[in-house]
TrEMBL record:
Alphabetical list of SUPFAM superfamilies matching this protein: S-adenosyl-L-methionine-dependent methyltransferases
Protein name: Methyltransferase type 12 domain-containing protein
Species, as recorded: Marinobacterium lacunae
Domain Methyltransferase type residue range list: 53-147
Signal peptide: none
Gene3D superfamilies, A to Z: Vaccinia Virus protein VP39
Amino acid sequence: MDYLRINKDAWEKRTKLHVESTFYDVDSFKKGRCSLNPIELNQLRSVQGKSLLHLQCHFGLDTLSWARLGADVTGVDFSSDAIKQANALKQALGLSAHFIESDVIQFGKTNTQQFDIVFTSYGVLCWLPNLADWATTVAKSLRAGGEFHLVEFHTVSDLLSGYAYFPNSEPSVEEEGTYTENCDGETSTVVTWSHPISEVVNALINAGLTIESFSEHPYSPYNCFDGLEFVPDLGYQMLYNGHQVPLVYSIKARKVS
Ligand SMILES: C[S@@+](CC[C@H](N)C(=O)[O-])C[C@H]1O[C@@H](n2cnc3c(N)ncnc32)[C@H](O)[C@@H]1O
């Protein structure tokens, strides 16, 4: 199965909807809104003057937000429409950024630049069959002493939504709509893999990175799953038997040498 072709087609379709959506609210972004959330802003702290590689950057809102905060940014995504939109936004806003259209693993094989920071967030790992290759890409892209930051949806919430926690040998192949409010019943075939947190942690360790912090968060900044309820000032939560479900986790790791 050509999972890259199938998923790329889905993301080309999704990107068109996302750029127009209230969910991504490009108009307010153009007026100066930062698209980053407190979880990643607090974890990365100052990016001023640092080189930052954003893997699976979608159409660049977060990448360009890091640029507005002073980082020298490079974004990578395999969707040509996403990269086109990211470049158009960059130009319209007069920001400096470099966007590359590539599968993330292919990028890791050919890239020779090393960055101070590698960042990736919210809905990225499920598209990748092999986290060992992904972690190698991350490690190779960092300079010695550089930092990796992952902010990802928690796999326990996937479990409660009916997905496997422990990987099946076969990926999940589904006909699915997207998460923005303007989806309007439009669906695409998507191929995804579940990755338990132990697999993520072990992939990073095996790639030679040192994990410096691991956090779990009961609130998601995004209303993109069934069964979420809004809590003012905190975000969206999910309750299971009256208890909060972990919705997001974040990892900071370093390439020590
Ligand atoms: C859920 S989005 C990431 C969300 C992002 N934080 C945002 O909202 O701006 C997932 C992104 O991964 C990209 N993607 C999926 N598989 C990929 C791959 N193998 N290589 C590169 N990009 C990929 C998609 O095109 C999409 O832009």
